[in-house]
Structure formats: C-alpha cells, structure tokens
Design brief:
Number of domains: 2
CATH superfamily of the largest domain: Type I PLP-dependent aspartate aminotransferase-like (Major domain)
CATH architecture of the largest domain: 3-Layer(aba) Sandwich
Shape: globular
CATH class of the largest domain: Alpha Beta
Order of helices and strands: EHHHEHEHEHEHEHEEEEHHEEHEEEH
Strand content: 15-25%
Largest sheet: 7 strands, mixed
Number of helices: 12
Strand order of the largest sheet: 2-8-7-6-5-3-4
CATH topology of the largest domain: Aspartate Aminotransferase, domain 2
Number of strands: 15
Distance between the termini: 28 Å
C-alpha cells in the first residue's frame, strides 16, 4: 500500500515498529507493573526526547492519549468566567471548536473568529483589532487538517505575549515536518499527536506547558500519578506539565513514541524539510497537468499537506477507487470543518500528504492511476 495520507496516519518508523513488537512479546510473559519498573530509565528518555524536540524543559512536557485530550484538558483547566473571550480562526480543529462551544454553553465565554487572509493565514491586523481586556486565550492551529497552509503561529503568539494573553498552538500536523521551536514561537501551550508526520503509533500524543503557565492550570482529572495525598482531606497537584497525566498509560506506546523521535533525530529536520520540498514540488507540478485540478494552498506557503479538487470527480469516490489500487489518500469534508470558508463551493476535498519516506515513483503512480480514473470517468 502506497501511503500518501501521512496527515492522517504515517507508516510507523522502523524502530517504533520493532519496539512495539518487542514490548508486546514481553507483556505476554511478564506483569505490566514489573515491565514499567524495568523500563523506567527508557521511559524517562522519552520525555527527554520530547523536550529536545520542542526545545523546552523536560518538566514542561507530558504524554497523553491524543492531541485532542491534551487540548481539551489544558483549555478546560483554565479559570473561565462569563464574558471571557477566546480568539480563533477558521483553521480550528473540529474537536477543539466543539469544546469551545461546550465552554460557551456552560461558562458563558465569548468566541470570536479572526479573519483569514486570502492565503488562508490568520489576519494579524484583524487579530489585533479583536483583542480586548476580556481576551483570555488565543488559539492557533499551525497547519489545518483541511488546508496545508503554514499559519503565522510565531507572529500570533508573539502578539499574545505582548498583550499578556495565553496562547495555545495545535501542532499535530507540523511536528515531524517542520522545525517547531517553543522558545522561538513563544506559545504557552502546545499539543500534538504521534501518529502523523512524526511516524509514531496511534493512541498517544504529547503536549507542552510553559513553566510560567503552570499556576494557570487546574486539572479536572487527578490521581496519585500527578498528585500527592498527605492528609485525609488534603491533596496537592504537581505544578509541572505532568499534572495532566494519569497513572494508567501504555508503556509500549510511550517507548514506541521515543523510538519515533529518535528516528526523527537520526534523519534530521533539515533533511526532512529538503526531501519533503522535493516531493511536494514534484506532486504539484504533475497534478497541475491534470485537467480540472485545483490546489487550495499557495504553493510558497504550503506544507506537505496538500488539499485539492479534481473536477468533476467526487473526492470520496476517488479515494475508494485509489484504495482499490493500493494507494491511500485522505479527504476533508465540510461536515467536519463547518467554520472553514474553503468549503463554500465544495463539500469535500482531496487531501494528499507525501512524507520523506515516500518516493517520486509512488507519486507518479498516484498521478498515473488518477489519470486513468479520469479517462474512464469521461467514457
């Protein structure tokens, strides 16, 4: 199977795959508690690797089941009052936005959508205009699931810092294909998943909380992993990023994540960026030759998540036909991106996301088969 759906779920890195097999075999022969104790040092190395990846302190990172769980846990832990404002733009992930709607309903917060530029980046001038004394959080998506334009994360977060406003960055599509530096970006919070361009396993994600924001967070879920219980009626929650972790977690997935991060460093972000640029430009050049094709991203601002339509082919139907030919691509639907203006004309879009391990030959195969489907469509 040719996987051109890395924005959905990449192929596991080889070291991550081997680590999962190793741990599953061990778990069939030993108590999971004993395994966790035996691998304590290796587990700590995973946290060290995340801190290295994000350029931050190790006490500023934590591991959870997904970027969605991390985002909702962090945002839900803030002290919300009626009238507090959250600024976001049309890149916002559906699960994030649904949680904001829940807070609006239950806490009376105000949601304010910031305009996009014609290139689908956040409009910084409009962001400045919309900030008021009640603005509590600015939510930025680095790369949207339905549009691969690289957003102005650094500029938006810098503005938030100048105004004393908390800023959260959803980096689930940028980790693994961009150099994401929390020092440079200046976000207070960052969430991401392992399964996309980082090539880790499903069912695990990780997050960053700047140490200056520890006191702003009050986790809803707690247990003795991140809290202590010194007296019968007293508990104390840790004031570091682990405050959102729970005791029950998968050692196997954590160690596989660590292997994916190690593989990432072995290749190096500069080589990944260089290789991905080659793949992206090759794809765009060839897809432009297909009659009826329309790419939604500005080519100079795009990541390796590329959205397009090929008229008059139905994206879902094309996805099914390609799968029959052992090619996996993604699609984006209006029903999962209700605030995205790119869906004004089309209810569905194709999403193709090559990554460094893909080959030019695999992209050529995608183009060839798609051309044949188009020819058959017009017979």
């Amino acid at each position: 199977m040719i996987n051109l759906n890395n924005a959905g779920c990449s192929n596991l890195s080889e070291s991550a795959r081997k680590k999962i097999i190793e741990l599953v075999n061990i778990e069939s022969k030993q108590c999971g508690y004993d395994i966790a104790q035996n691998y304590e040092d290796q587990i700590q190395d995973v946290y060290n690797g995340i801190a290295k990846l994000l350029k931050c302190r190790v006490d500023e990172v934590g591991i959870t089941k997904s970027s969605t769980m991390a985002w909702q846990s962090i945002v839900g832990s803030l002290d919300w009052n009626e009238g507090d404002e959250v600024l976001f733009d049309a890149s916002e992930y559906s699960s994030n936005y649904l949680f904001l709607l829940k807070l609006k309903k239950e806490k009376g917060i105000v949601l304010k959508e910031v305009q996009k530029t014609k290139n689908f980046q956040i409009d910084l001038d409009d962001l400045k205009k919309q900030i008021t004394s009640r603005t509590k959080l600015i939510s930025i998506v680095h790369i949207a699931t339905c549009n691969g334009t690289i957003n102005l994360a650094k500029e938006a977060c810098e503005l938030a810092q100048k105004k004393g406003i908390l800023c959260i960055l959803d980096a689930c599509q940028s980790i693994g294909q961009l150099d994401v530096n929390t020092i440079d970006i200046e976000c207070d919070f960052l969430v991401t998943s392992a399964r996309k361009f980082l090539r880790g396993p499903r069912g695990i994600g990780f997050y960053f909380i700047r140490h200056t924001a520890f006191e702003k967070c009050n986790p809803f879920f707690i247990d003795l992993h991140a809290s202590s219980w010194p007296e019968k009626e007293i508990y104390k929650t840790k004031k570091n990023a682990s405050m959102f972790e729970l005791w029950e977690s998968s050692i196997t997935l954590k160690l596989a994540l660590g292997e994916a991060i190690s593989d990432f460093f072995k290749i190096g972000i500069n080589e990944i960026i260089k290789r991905n640029k080659l793949l992206r430009e090759h794809f765009i050049a060839n897809i432009d030759n297909l009659e009826g094709s329309m790419i939604w991203e500005d080519k100079d601002l795009s990541s390796n998540l590329i959205t397009l339509n090929i008229n008059p082919l139905n994206p879902i139907k094309l996805q099914v036909l390609l799968k029959e030919k052992s090619i996996s691509i993604g699609t984006s639907k209006k029903t999962t991106s209700m605030i995205n203006p790119n869906f004004n004309k089309y209810d569905q879009k194709l999403r193709v996301s090559p990554h460094y391990y893909n080959t030019l030959g695999e992209i050529n195969e995608f183009i060839k088969i798609t051309q044949n489907i188009i020819k058959n469509h017009f017979k």
